[in-house]
Amino acid sequence: MNTAILYILAIAGIFTHPFHVAVTEMSYNMNRQSIEVSQRMFSDDLEKGIRSAYGISFDILEASQAERDTLIMRYINDNFHLKKNKKRLTIRYLGSEFEEEALWAYFEIPASDTENLSLRNTLLFNEFDDQQNLVHIDRQKDLRSYIFRRSDKEQVIFR
């Protein structure tokens, strides 16, 4: 009997993860005058976030690419705000792809430069008390990293 319980717990552990982290990589492309963004979230966490935020039935694996991208774009727009001089910049969503248990979302944000930027990152904060969002930024070899938590949702990233 104990062996059966351990087996069930081991199988269940395969389908869950003990921490809640989203990782964002941002890089300023001076030639294109845009900030290129790659965002990695656990697929099941993102699915839960979208369901909860919009009160819909949504299966991230079964949805069409168009439906998935529409909802991911909406969710990112609602929870990831880059501001320049306190004015919100527009996100141009490029697409997404799966990588094992995660989903990568890609977008760019037009910006003539990276001065006076702040970021509000509330991805998945309404779903998980322990959610942390890591942001790594490369601005022409000036590398910076930030951690966003429920208690620290908005930060100045460049003055």
Describe this structure in words.
By secondary structure, the protein is of the alpha+beta class. The chain is globular and about 40 Å long. The strands form 2 sheets. The protein has a 6-stranded mixed beta sheet with strand order 5-6-2-1-8-9. The chain contains 3 helices and 10 strands. The protein starts with a helix and ends with a strand. Residues 4-14 have low confidence and may be disordered.
Helix-strand topology string? HEEHHEEEEEEEE
Stretches where pLDDT is under 50 for at least 5 consecutive residues are 4-14
Share in β-strands:
35-45%
User: What is the 3D form?
Assistant: globular
Order of strands in the sheet with the most strands? Answer: 5-6-2-1-8-9
Total beta strand runs: 10
Distance between the termini: 61 Å
Q: What helical percentage do the residues reach?
A: 25-40%
Main sheet record: 6 strands, mixed
Number of continuous helical runs: 3
Mean pLDDT: 89
- Our Rg estimate from Cα atoms comes to 17 Å
* Structural class by sheet pairing and helices: alpha+beta
